[in-house]
Write a structure and sequence with these properties.
Blueprint (H helix, E strand, L loop, with lengths): L12 H5 L3 H17 L1 H8 L1 H10 L1 H14 L8 H12 L6 H9 L3 E2 L2 E2 H6 L6 E6 L17 E7 L7 H4 L1 H12 L19 H35 L1
Parallel strand pairs: 3-4
Antiparallel strand pairs: 1-2
């Protein structure tokens, strides 16, 4: 999914005039998040342990902290009570507690050799094929053209709905994108060694079938040994 931690605006009038209505709406969404929705990040990146004590101490506080994101960061997803409680309980009942999930914000803002660690993780890894998925209610929704300098783009898909938690809101879209990108004829087909793609996996299925046949044969051999052992026990008795 495409996004960054800034909310830039078009640099020239011609660039601004070339934006589609959906791209303009995406920049508005990005600006909203930057000015009204990113306060949590400032707290987590500067005082994570203090916040961790608070969230660990107050179940209601933790519920409010989590549900705010579930509500604001999705595309009108109809959360059920069970879903909300499940998400919250993952933080509440984990061995490390709620503080574990927010500590990374501070760690990634450490400076190493004059560079934020977060910036180091954003660098393009040469020769890696990239796939981009755009969801209208994500947190940073930039124009499509702005991402095309990131590296070797082999897949792009603009989705009509979905937010920051698209994998939960609309899992079929993520699964479909992966199948299309890595499957037969996809831009990343064959990037995994010894694999021909999700849909072009006849050889893989044959190997799996062969493995199943071997397991069945081993099971039959095991049953035969058990019968022989049983017959031997009877003879001895």
């Amino acid at each position: 999914m495409v996004g960054s931690r800034e909310s830039p605006q078009p640099r020239t009038p011609s660039e601004a005039s070339s934006l589609t209505p959906s791209e303009r709406a995406g920049l508005d969404r990005s600006a909203w998040f930057q000015t009204q929705g990113s306060g949590y990040s400032a707290i987590q990146s500067t005082k994570p342990q203090t916040l961790g004590y608070l969230l660990n101490d107050s179940p209601i506080g933790l519920l409010a902290w989590i549900y705010e994101k579930l509500h604001d960061w999705t595309d009108a997803y109809p959360w059920t009570d069970d879903e909300i409680l499940t998400w919250t309980c993952i933080y509440a009942f984990s061995t490390a507690g709620p503080a574990a999930s927010i500590r990374i914000y501070k760690e990634t803002r450490r400076v190493d050799e004059g560079v934020w660690l977060m910036e180091k993780t954003r660098g393009y890894v040469p020769h890696v094929k990239l796939g981009l998925a755009y969801y209208p209610r994500d947190l940073y929704v930039h124009p499509i053209a702005w991402a095309r300098g990131m590296g070797e783009i082999v897949f792009e898909k603009v989705h009509e709905r979905g937010g920051h938690f698209a994998a939960w809101e609309w899992p079929e879209s993520i699964a479909g994108d992966l199948k299309e990108m890595f499957g037969s004829g996809g831009g990343a087909e064959g990037v995994v060694r010894w694999r021909d793609g999700v849909d072009a996996g006849g050889d893989r299925r044959d190997r799996m079938d062969a493995g199943g046949d071997r397991r069945d044969s081993m099971d039959r051999e095991g049953d035969a040994r058990d019968r022989m052992d049983g017959e031997g026990d009877q003879e001895m008795s």
